[in-house]
């Protein structure tokens, strides 16, 4: 007789969803407080653009993984949510720049930042988000955390160049596709897990284990996200199919 595979109970899935939503909300609260603290030093239009890009939806996958990684290693405090928010800053900044490159008019069911505010504002807002991420990661996770996130950011840019190269090639191989996925998506998700573990005072072996976990999650996530471009329901995903 074949052994039956364990299926998560409905109650367990409901708990997981509620847990993720709760920590995503706390991350959003940390973002708002951080933006408000920096607002006096910057132009009001910048913060209009930032709030539009940051608070109009999103899965908050990267922040939640950073939080879970730190908590798994034994640390949970208020600054953890600010650290988690930095990964949403970096992700949002990269999406803004992606939309400039792609001349995209929509993002998450709304006008893209570049469509609503123009190219100059979009580029500058994305730059600010990248810089803010680096500043906060360095402050909260030290030089090692900064090194990790800088490496992931460089990899994202490299992945974008690879994607530009392969865009006109209808015969892209699986290996080439995965090389883009690894650089553009997986390494940042890996970095969020590794830095979360670093913040949680994990042993180096634990940090690397969570980094590998994040990389695999990132690859799987991007494959599914790419499939939704062709197979998804636009009303559900907010993505143009």
TrEMBL record:
Its cofactor is Mg(2+). Pfam families: polyprenyl_synt (PF00348). InterPro entries: Isoprenoid_synthase_dom_sf, Polyprenyl_synt, Polyprenyl_synt_CS. The keyword Iron does not apply. Its EC number is 2.5.1.90. One of its GO terms (biological process) is isoprenoid biosynthetic process. SUPFAM superfamilies: Terpenoid synthases. Keywords: Magnesium, Metal-binding, Transferase. It is an enzyme of class 2 (transferase). One of its GO terms (molecular function) is metal ion binding. It comes from the Bacteria. Gene3D superfamilies: Farnesyl Diphosphate Synthase. Belongs to the FPP/GGPP synthase family. This is Geranylgeranyl pyrophosphate synthase. The lineage of its organism: Bacteria, Pseudomonadati, Thermodesulfobacteriota, Desulfobulbia, Desulfobulbales.
């Amino acid at each position: 007789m074949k052994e039956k595979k364990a299926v998560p109970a409905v109650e367990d899935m409901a708990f997981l969803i509620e847990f993720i939503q709760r920590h995503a909300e706390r991350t959003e609260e940390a973002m708002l407080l951080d933006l408000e603290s920096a607002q006096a030093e910057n132009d009001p239009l910048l913060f209009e653009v930032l709030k539009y890009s940051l608070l109009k939806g999103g899965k908050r996958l990267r922040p939640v993984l950073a939080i879970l990684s730190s908590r798994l290693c034994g640390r949970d405090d208020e600054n953890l949510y600010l650290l988690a928010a930095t990964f949403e800053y970096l992700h949002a900044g990269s999406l803004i720049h992606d939309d400039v490159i792609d001349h995209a008019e929509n993002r998450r069911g709304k006008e893209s930042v570049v469509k609503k505010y123009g190219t100059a504002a979009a580029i500058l807002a994305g730059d600010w988000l990248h810089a803010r991420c680096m500043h906060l990661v360095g402050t909260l996770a030290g030089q090692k955390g900064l090194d990790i996130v800088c490496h992931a950011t460089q990899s994202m840019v490299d992945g974008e160049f690879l994607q530009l190269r392969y865009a006109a090639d209808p015969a892209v191989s699986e290996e080439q596709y995965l090389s883009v996925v690894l650089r553009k998506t997986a390494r940042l998700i890996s970095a969020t897990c590794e830095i979360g573990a670093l913040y949680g005072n994990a042993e180096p072996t634990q940090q690397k284990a969570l980094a590998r976990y994040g990389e695999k999650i990132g690859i799987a996530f991007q494959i599914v996200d790419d499939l939704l471009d062709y197979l998804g329901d636009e009303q559900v995903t907010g993505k143009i199919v």
